[in-house]
Amino acid sequence: MPSRKKAGKDISALSGSFTKLSLEQKQEVKDDEDEDSERTIVGVCKCGSCRFEFPRAVACVDDSLAMVNCHCEACRRSHAAAFASYVVAPTSSLQNLKGHDAVRVRSDTCCSMEGAVLRAFCGKCFASMATFQKVGSSVRISAGSLEEGTFPSFKEVKFEEYCEESGAPYLGFIPSKPKQKALRASAGHEKVTGGCACGACQFSLKKLPEEFQHCYCNACRRLSGAA
Questions:
Q1: Checking phi first, is residue 82 left (phi over 0); if not, alpha (psi -120 to 50) or beta?
Q2: Is this structure's pTM higher than 0.85?
Q3: Which end of the chain is more exposed for a tag (fewer CB within 10 A), N or C?
């Protein structure tokens, strides 16, 4: 049977080992947190001429990626999508990596951003990259431009919906106005028109399609900037 003196030494040694292990584990957690805070998310246009990045931390709330879906007509036309999806970040956090001289901007509006905005896109492939307020400190980065490989793991992605009342009438979850209800009821029967964001290009269809398809490939997402 071990002596009381030896048992005391064993307990002290075990306690010391446990304390050392705890300190090492705490340091590992701190190192992981420091590394996580320094990670960046990278955005790129369809042709690869323009690349930028921003810290992951500025777009997160409680370990969740904060995103915005805007259903206003200007955003839908600008992205040629049923709605536009963005990651919001401080303008000062963006760092250009490549193709600064290839970036072009045009003036536009956005209902949820309350007024005049600038839409940034690649001047070579015309992929949508970001939307800025003309007066403000934040930028909405087009979700389709973001590289999946640069996304760290998130507990969840939180979407905040804007301008749902202006949403596309063919989306069933959008509250319908009388005009939208009539348009949805006319699917497959009446002629519909469409056009680009600035209105220079317009087209018409003999009838509203009875089926809509959404492509999730990298090329389509990068070009439109939609998620």
A1: alpha
A2: no
A3: N
